[in-house]
């Protein structure tokens, strides 16, 4: 059986409706500004509080909506408002999130659950609505069925580093969910999924968008997570990070190319390089332990 996702080419309408979560700052805000600058795109910009969306220009093609992705009723209301205003959704970007950083043993259960609730369950809630609207509502507006769902993880959705156990758990979950959902939707619905995996981006991700655990006494100053923290916070680290405007431009090119949509797209040379390296490590382990892996299959008598 062939479960290849995104098997049909996609053509974005010229007046596409973009629905973006987490527009108060960072990547979400950058994409939202890019969309508002386009002469025909329409935008639904969301954040927990609409006052946080002041940096995004107002206008007849812009709808600002309060959205807390951890609340099902809030998600329901935001999607309903978007459909009521524009009649359809063409590009849905699940971007809302933050990182929980620190020693795994030091995290509280409240911190752990809040991280997964935001990163994973928030994406699930919005994605399920997106598929419903793209399949059932879009044709009612006089347009065609279909759309693109972009779930933003990071290179941390493909590989893990010390200090980010629960962040990685949430992002890995989003990637598995996205791959499975992409293989479930029927080709004739013309709904495509893509996992966006940025590397370092010039945002406040290591500032206000980060929750830090108290250090655990068993992990000393030279522990792997401490060394990585020092590197991430050092002044020169961000010099090679991606520009938000170029991230937005790349995403627009992805959805307007008329070509097939890949199931995942690393953005940034750091993300691309790290993922390629991780694939090579996995491949080496597979080869080195191939005999042991296959030893569980009984030999024929």
From TrEMBL:
Membrane in keyword set: no
GO molecular function: oxidoreductase activity
Keyword annotations of the record: Oxidoreductase
Matches recorded under InterPro entries: NAD(P)-bd_dom_sf, SDR_fam, SDR_oxidoreductase
Protein origin, superkingdom: Eukaryota
Transmembrane spans: none
Family, per entry: Belongs to the short-chain dehydrogenases/reductases (SDR) family.
Protein name in UniProt: Uncharacterized protein
């Amino acid at each position: 059986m062939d479960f290849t996702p995104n098997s049909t080419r996609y053509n974005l309408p010229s007046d596409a409706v973009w629905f973006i979560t987490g527009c108060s700052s960072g990547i979400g805000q950058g994409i939202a500004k890019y969309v508002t600058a386009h002469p025909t795109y329409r935008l639904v910009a969301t954040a927990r509080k609409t006052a946080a969306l002041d940096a995004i220009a107002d206008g007849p093609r812009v709808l600002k909506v309060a959205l807390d992705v951890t609340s099902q009723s809030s998600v329901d209301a935001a999607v309903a408002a978007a459909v009521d205003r524009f009649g359809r959704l063409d590009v849905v970007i699940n971007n809302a999130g933050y990182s929980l950083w620190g020693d795994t043993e030091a995290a509280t259960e409240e911190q752990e659950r809040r991280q997964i609730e935001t990163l994973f369950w928030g994406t699930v809630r919005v994605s399920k609505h997106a598929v419903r609207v793209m399949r059932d509502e879009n044709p009612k507006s006089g347009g065609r069925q279909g759309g693109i769902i972009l779930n933003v993880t990071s290179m941390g959705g493909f590989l893990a580093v010390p200090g980010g156990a629960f962040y990685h758990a949430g992002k890995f979950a989003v990637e598995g969910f996205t791959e499975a959902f992409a293989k479930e939707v029927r080709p004739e619905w013309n709904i495509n999924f893509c996992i966006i995996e940025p590397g370092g981006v010039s945002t406040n991700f290591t500032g206000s968008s980060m929750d830090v655990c108290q250090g655990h006494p068993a992990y000393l100053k030279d522990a792997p997570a401490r060394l990585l923290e020092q590197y991430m916070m050092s002044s020169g680290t961000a010099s090679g990070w991606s520009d938000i405007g170029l991230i937005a431009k790349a995403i627009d090119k992805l959805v307007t190319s008329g070509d097939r949509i890949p199931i995942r797209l690393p953005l940034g040379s750091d993300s691309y390089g790290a993922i390629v390296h991780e694939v090579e490590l996995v491949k080496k382990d597979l080869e080195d332990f191939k005999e042991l892996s296959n030893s569980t299959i009984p030999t024929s008598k």
